[in-house]
Amino acid sequence: MSFSDTDVQGALKNLIDPNTKKDFVSGKSVKNIKVSGSDVSLDILLGYPAKSVWGEIKSMVEAHLKSALPGVGKVEANVSSKVVPHAVQRGVKLVEGVKNIIAVASGKGGVGKSTTAVNLALALAAEGARVGVLDADIYGPSQPTMLGITGQPVSKDGKSMEPMNNHGIQAMSIGFMIAGDDTPMVWRGPMVTQALDQLLHQTRWDNLDYLVVDLPPGTGDIQLTLAQKVPVTGAVIVTTPQDIALMDARKGLKMFEKVGIKIVGIVENMSTHICSKCGHEEHIFGAGGGEKMCADYDVEFLGGLPLDIRIREQADSGNPTVVADPDGNIAKVYKQIARRIAVKVADMAQDHSAAFPKIVVQNT
User: The pTM is what?
Assistant: First the structure.
């Protein structure tokens, strides 16, 4: 029995991608269908990194086609991912070598924003993406410690800086420029924004799918200026469940809305505490706050992370959880959240700013 491309397309219209919740055809993931007699081969090209689930998707597609196409012979599905640039707020200078910028922010300090940012960056990298981290917290840079990076960046041309590297991701921070961990940055707002602009645009980012920007906490003048200067594809808000943190997280969300930056979703950190002695789980900061905020503002709840001593210990040691225990339950949660972020970004409007019309001059 032979089949046509249309038969294969029709069969896949009933198969839902578990990550996007759309069928593979409407999600434009089905490519290069080839039919040879009763054998079928095709490519599934995902718009988000998902290396850890490629095998699952391959098996799902092949099994579905075998059941949906009676008499089909050999079925071969090749799964891969390709990340493309997406639109940012208008009037902001783009960053060379970077496809998408994800801002990780919080309304207040102490909610684990930087720890969440670095683990999400590492999770995106683990899923097959090219990822960088920009530590935009000029007053309190923590990414050099969390990434276990020491030393200073070098310049090959005297004008730009090479990013620092560890754990497979590129990084830049003002922390690489200062003398010691206890050296304070006694700078006024304009100096901070100028420093960030230089760190962002003078770093030679090498073909990044995502640059995760760890923003300083708060919603003041500095944060607003940074939000207006950094070409952000989307923002992730980190909060904890208690009312005071959620109140400030709402202010952070409103700040991004004011400057035209789309909200990717909300991550609730320290959702539950699991006792290391007996395993008892308790909502010590309250329960359901993140989900309620998402419902109030019609944004996605990306996931909840536990209050676990290992997350703190591993980040402090320069080996965050996603690389310290890549197959552990907490790393799996970070990867799930990272995939949800990537899926949301992939669903945003693509950046066509570089697609200029071709001008042809002819003699008549």
Answer: 0.90
